[in-house]
Known about the structure:
Elements: H1 16-19, H2 73-89, H3 96-101, H4 114-125, E1 128-132, H5 138-146, E2 149-153, H6 170-177, H7 184-203, H8 206-218, E3 221-224, E4 227-230, H9 233-236, H10 239-247, E5 252-255, H11 258-263, E6 274-278, H12 281-288, H13 293-300
Parallel strand pairs: 1-2, 3-6, 5-6
Antiparallel strand pairs: 3-4
Helix pairs in contact: 5-7, 7-8, 7-12
Amino acid sequence: MSHAAISGDAARAEKGxxxxxxxxxxxxxxxxxxxxxxxxPVVYGASERPPRGDYTRAGxxxxxxxxxxxxxxxxxxxxxxxxxxxxxxxxxxxxxEFIAALPSLGASDHIPRFEDINQRxxxxxxxxxxTVPGLIPEVPFFTLLANRKFPVTDWIRxxxxxDYIVEPDVFHDLFGHVPLLFNPIFADHMQEYGKGGLKAxxxxxxxxxxRLYWYTVEFGLIQQKGGLRAYGAGILSSSGExxxxxxxxxxxxxxxDIERVMRTRYKIDSYQQTYFVINSFQELFDKTxxxxxxIYQRLQGLPDIATGARPAEEExxxxx
Length: 320
Ligand code: FE
């Protein structure tokens, strides 16, 4: 993950999540806080800063218990205010599945206990959330996803970071990512992504795959009956980018094309200039189902596409 700074509340980081991820899920012992502790991720491309978060808390798979006792009244209040502001923005901008599932997070006026969410989530799709101290390296990340475990950072931003945070915190991870894990198709897609990540790692193609994550799971748009909507967590957890992504005439919006996405660089410190649009989660699942091995090979010979580049021959989706 890397990030230098992520836009808006957004972020899960740029290459972040994708490239970072966590580890060998060590099986079923997410709370194995070993005596050793996990090494902090060292993947940061764009940032010199060490990741925030105390990695001595984490086990070999980078998970740890949610440090619920550490939350102060001010932390709960920050969550409450972030949640209230963001929930009010969703109608007409967030996809139907997200809005329908949001109440499944439970509490909106304080940081929820992850275990409470898990009781509902396991039942809905067999997923569970696990706690991590912050961004994690890519192999552990992919491993967790491949086992239907989604890593959620437990700490929350400081009040002075209300509008802008450089690394994903509990608000971004929970509010942005977890509601769609209640959707069966999206949930299956996330597991396939984790498996695909482990494969990409072996093929040296994590950069390509992380772009796919960025432009779908973090910043994806979906065309629904009511019009264009957001399903990407980076958009849905950002007060500023939500309206920009869905309604502004400025950014380019293209139909999801796997190779175009994999060639397209992205910025983590500003609103996106390009968004990719799907028509259904089934389309996302189907377009990512083919074996990417030959795609990765082909792309090695092709140049990247710069952030915001708008080749004249490309048909953009015009939004009204
Ligand atoms: Fe994220």
